[in-house]
Design a protein that fits this description.
The protein is 6% helix and 33% strand. The chain is mainly β and 279 residues long. Strands 1, 2, 3, 4, 5, 7, 8, 10 and 12 form a nine-stranded mixed sheet that branches. It has a six-stranded mixed sheet with strand order 14-15-16-18-20-22, with no helix packed on it. It has a four-stranded parallel sheet with strand order 6-9-11-13, with no helix packed on it.
Amino acid sequence: MKRFLNKIIIASLCIVLLLSGSGYDRKGRAYAATIPTGGEDFAFEGLRYRLTDDGSKTIAVVTGIDKDGKVLKDSIVIPSKVTFEDEQYSVRRIAAAAFAYSDIIEAEISEGVERIEASAFTGCSLLKRITFPASLDSIGTGVFSYCRALENIEIADFNEVFIYENGMLFGSGYEYLFWASQSVKSRVSVPEGTVRIMAYAFEGNSKIKKVILPAGLKRIDKGAFFDCPSLTSADIPATVTAMDGNPFMYCPSLTKIRVASQNEAYCTSKSGLQIGRAH
């Protein structure tokens, strides 16, 4: 019964994340992630799109499920161009929650796509492989949350923003840690040079037991370690000066959070499980 209730809580929180998503550009600046309004919807080769209403010939992928409700095919290609009513349009965005909780296994994103918005692939439990084109330069929060089979992110050679290494997806070199896969080791060492762990980066990761954060880390965003059931301990370095709420929410195995004594912004409670502002 308790496990069932826990699943309901997590599902409810995931819905909140879908409805309140945001994203980050290559410099870590936040933007609101919304499904475009005002344009016309249409289908093209099994995927659905919505025209933008700014007069330009750009569109956003809205969903992979066609009007007749057919199950999305295993492997999808998000094209760079589509045709609607004899006009050709460029694909620039994958909209928020576009493929959330679908059964896709592989996804290829074509050159020209610039942004993947919040929760676009959340809950795609069968997704194993995805490709990033050179043009992609921003992704939203929780894009791959609960994609527990995803271990292969292929990034085009000329993409200057993203790096996928040791099961972790980084942006702007190693400055921003966007996401960690289930392939990471149970003892995770975030590399030197990382200054920010983005929102929901480790969300739903059942593998990690201990996380070691580097000196020089400055910010941990909301829900960075949300629902990591095996996580038992975490060390916060002295350089962290900003955290959005409790980044370790719903980590039932967590027994100790250690904040470096030199940290002037935060401290832990006597129980070692609560983080508060240093006085």
